[in-house]
Structures
1.
Amino acid sequence: MMQEDAIQNAHATLARSLQTMNCRCTPERRAILDAACSMDAPFSIADIAAQMASHGFKVSRATLYNTLRLLVDLRLIVCLRMQNCTRYEAVDPTRTRCRQVCTLCGRTMEVSAPAELDKLPGAKTRRFRPTAYALYVFGMCASCQRRACQDTNINKKHTRSAGTEKEKQGNI
Ligand SMILES: [Zn+2]
């Protein structure tokens, strides 16, 4: 959960940008930003839809998708594209986090950041204005590793039996 002032700043950015674009800052857009900021982990469109429904807010998939895209454009959230899924996460400029992300199922887990990470906000950047810092460690979670291992074993078995089949045919 983000700190209140960080959420207020995000809302101010959204309102300002929508005004510049001559778009209305609708209650739906504000609610989607609120829901994104309240998430403890990177979320899918289904996750945020469920979160909003639990607060009695019904929004269409299209509105959700378009608003998330707008929030990405405004750098208020980041989009993590993985092999099989997409996750979003609110940008929190007040803290540096470290997450491990499974690129197959999208499962994420916050891990303690290496001490070096605290030095990042002071680090020099080149012709670049940093807005937030995060460290994502991409890889494969334990259950996806197990599944991948099982799949390999099944494939091996198939290849082996196919090979024997061929050998048999060759012998005839
Ligand atoms: Zn996984």
2.
Amino acid sequence: MTLAIVDQAERAELAAGTGLTPQAVSKILARLIDDGLVEEVGRRQGARGKPATLYRLRSEKAHAIGIHAGRTDIKGVRVDLGGNVLDTIATPMPAQFTPAQLIDGIASTVEKLVSPQSDSTNPEIVGVGVALPGPVDRTTGVVQGFRWWRDPAATPLLDALTHRLGRHTVMDLSINAALELTAWQRGDQMTDTLYALLDRGVGGALWIGGRLHRGAHMSAGEFGHLVIEAGGPECECGRRGCVEAVQQRALAEGDIARAAAAVATGIANALHIVDVPGVVWSGSDLEAHPEAYAAALAAELQRTLAGGAAYTIHRAVPAEVPHEDCPADLVATGAAVMVLESVYGIPARPGESLDQSLTPEPAEITSR
Ligand SMILES: [Zn+2]
């Protein structure tokens, strides 16, 4: 959504930024203006031709809530229509909590983020995005086999949350939410990318051809479960010697260099298969030792077939936030952005149905 990234733009820039035709951009703009979400803010005279109308996204008109349900706490953010973080909150969770406790925790976190609105703009809350470590089926919203849950049965969490919250709710893996945030921020600058989330574990995801590449079983890009040490430490997934298991063992032993080397080997192995030009990473483990991880990855990529210079590496860091003691969690922010995309998302490439990606249903649209 190009308007979310730039302050204001004219129609031709929006068309170039989204890959849509100017006619399609006009239709979308008309609908957003009808909804009160975009306004005309003036005209700009170019070197030749008629002056172009400038449009601005009214970010203050609609907000979304993002939730990151982790193993030890629930982090929440409230964002405006431009994806800017306005408020943050963290709720601690008991060890080995049940699905019912998780639903209670998410509901109370959402309630706290929704209630304290004293401003006069009275924004609409368009929905809640929930991100979990997995495994979660994004389409059915069924969670099954969390090893940190006491209940091993399949839980229709999305249905339960939608009912409890009474709001439009979307759900996805934490790693995918983090990747969606990067794609949202970069817009058409987003290249094919391997994302690594180092946050009490090793998550991986792929962005290929302008979208998340999920794979047949929603686990594409999960390089944390590539085996790098035959017969190595047991992994949560049931195999031995996975990147994640080796990294977690090294961290427990205080061997940061070994932990970083395990992750670097995993990323290099994954790049040999998918050969994407970009690597983006984030997470608390990375934030604790950024130099060690960067050095290990640079050294490892140097030894790949393409060589280290063939890849761009970017560390995603949390945005400036209202509360210094409660930073804007990247996964929670990504979950909120997922909501904005599900409601107002404009496809990044031409040829996709606009009507499926825009709600509410199109009313009368006048061509401009
Ligand atoms: Zn594993």
